[in-house]
Amino acid sequence: MHRVSALLRTSILGLTALFTIPVMPAHAHFGAIIPRADIVTQSEEGNLTLDIAFLHPLEQQYMEMARPKQFGVLHRGKQTDLTASLRPVKAKGPGQNNWFTRWEAEYAISRPGDYTFFVQPQPYWEEAEDSFILHYTKVCVHGFGLELGWDTPVGLPTEIVPLTRPYGLWTANLFTGQVLVNGQPAPFAEVEVEYLNSSPDNPSPIQPPSAPYVTQVVKADSNGIFSYAMPRQGWWGFAALSPAEWTLPHDGKDKAVELGAVYWVHTADMR
Amino acid sequence: MIRRPIVHIIAAYLLLMLLAGTPIRPAHAHGVSLFAYLDNGMVYTESYFSDGRPVVGGKVTVADRHQKPLIHGETDKQGLWSFPLSGALPLVITLDASLGHRHTFTLRQAKQ
User: Fold this and answer.
1) Cβ burial B44-58 (10 Å sphere, 16+ → b, else e)
2) Among candidates B76, B102, B104, B90, which has minimal Cα distance to B43?
3) Which residue from A minimizes the CA distance to B31?
4) Which of A44, A110, A147 to mutate against chain B (most B CBs within 10 Å)?
5) B52 and A144: CB-CB below 8 Å?
6) Would you call B35 and A110 a contact, using CB atoms and an 8 Å cutoff?
7) Considering only CB atoms, which chain B residues are within 8 Å of A47?
8) Residue B21 and residue B30: Cα distance in Å, rounded?
9) Helix spans in B4-102 (H)
10) Which of A25, A63, A140, A147 could join A54 in a cystine, given CB atoms 3.0 to 4.6 angstroms apart?
């Protein structure tokens, strides 16, 4: 019943957005892991569904996502491989004629502490950019009041390590993170920020007045540290981009690879 | 007017506390939580501050779903306390760690 309601709400939001958002070129790509909750306080809340997708979050446009190379979770210093738990789901955004593959997984938050979920996708070929895109994506779910682990790096080739505790955030809070590439700070990395228009608690679809409003852009400082204040309740994605030092073949030619370190946080209005 | 000897005593006391390594941390900044799970007929509770420090000497009370008290105990140096399950789930388990720190956890499932 909840699933039907959520789908209906998403459809309504999507259709509304379709008729209200001006036609504009697609912008930032984001890997995404969106759990049904980012805080678990009682055991009956612990069975989570996580949605994993590759999309334009504000425009709600999906891209085809191949089965991720790895999906896992880090809890109290221990990594667990959850790749086998992934199941494909078809998704379609407003105005999209085709269905695209995203992924779902179930996971039980069963012990105190912070759970950092992460995805290492397969490289995505983006014809328009003549390059591959590879977004290493993370999200943190807090369990049972023990605030330990949210600032621990997973050890991905590139990742955002939060300097702000990434849950229990109010709308307009400042989120600060550090961009790492190969475990080292990435000076002056460009960080793209987008709001997930299909956030379950989005009160109404966003209608950006022009293209620059779709994707916010901030630059990290010399230590790879960036900040952004999130003006609306719902889910926010941060994607720090860097070129890979290696290439991948496509049609017999070597092509550049854009690496992304993506992190998702949720905000709630003060009531 | 404060007499000089009293000022000296207060200053000496503060200095002594600092030298003794009294932790300078806000008492209320970290919330407390209790987590419980059932294993082989025993209910195990863990009580901790949000930063991971154990709640030592916390009062734990257990009630049934109608709030009828069943058993109570106190956490040890690791913040742990356990008891045998004698009734039906759910159990409403409340930690009172003093200083206004209080948390209630409802144990509903046999398997966590």
Assistant:
1) bbbbbbbeeebbeeb
2) B90
3) A145
4) A147
5) no
6) no
7) none
8) 20
9) 4-19
10) A63
Average pLDDT for B55-81: 96
Cβ–Cβ of B112/A110 closer than 8 Å? yes
Task: Judge if ipTM > 0.90.
Answer: no
Apex CA A66: angle with CA A65 and CA A71, to 5°? 95
Give the tens place of pLDDT for each residue, A73-83: 999 999 999 99
Percent of chain A scored above 90 by pLDDT? Answer: 86
CB contact under 8 A, B109 and A148: no
C-beta atoms of B33 and A145 within 8 A = yes
**3-state DSSP call for residue B80?**
strand
- Sequence-ordered list of residues with C-beta below 8 angstroms from that of A262, at least 6 positions apart, any chain: A30, A31, A32, A135, A136, A137, A138, A160, A237, A238, A239, A240
Retrieve residue A242's tokens.
Answer: 């860097």
Residues 6+ away with beta carbon under 8 Å from A11: none
The strand pair at A253-268 and A169-170 is best described as parallel
Q: Is A167 exposed, middle or buried (0-12, 13-18, 19+ CB in 10 A)?
A: buried
Joined tokens for residue A105: 């997984």
CB atoms within 10 A of CB B91: 21
B46 contacts on A by Cβ (under 8 Å): 112
State yes or no: pLDDT of B20 exceeds 70: no
Residue A1 has pLDDT above 80, yes or no: no
Strand ordering across the sheet containing B69-74: B69-74, B59-63, B91-96, B102-107
Q: What is the mean pLDDT of chain B?
A: 81
Of the candidates B32, B51, B112, which has its C-beta nearest A43's C-beta?
A: B112
Q: Is the pLDDT of residue A91 over 50?
A: yes
- For range A157-182, the mean pLDDT: 98
